[in-house]
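Bench notes, afternoon.
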Amino acid sequence: MTEKSETNSGTEPPSSHAGRGANLIVTFVTGAVIGAMTFWIASDFWQMTAGNDSAKTNMKADMAETETGAHSHEMMAVDGWALIPTITSSIQKDPVGGWNLHLQTSNFTFDAASAGLANVEGHGHAHIYVNGEKLGRIYGDWFHIGKLPTGENVISVSLNANDHSALAYNGKLLEHKQIVTVE
């Protein structure tokens, strides 16, 4: 008579060691991803709530999730161009929230595909500023601005060449400014 008994002698077949190693790698990678996500969320939260600039940071986030910065681009004179570009704009309150900016240009073509490339006469994009802070770039006739802070807000839109130089005629920036008062 032969007896079979199941006991664990402390040794396992080699295939089970490979499975244990794979499980260890999956556990390590999962932990690293969860740790990185937690750090990322915590650091974003800390940046939003830290310091005296938190209201300004939140205002920018409310307006749009685009680039920021002050007016700092070089100017490009368009005095010698065959056709001088012009810009005007209007802004209306969006019924759902924020504001809708409508640009009207002449002798100017919005050219998103050429941003950052060689300049072409009469082509480029616009830069939008709210209270002197750059909100982003505009590549067409319409732009949505999110929530604006209470009080008077200066909305400024400049025409820019492909290399981001601000266009100027007779030494004056080609831009349109308007004030939006939020109660």
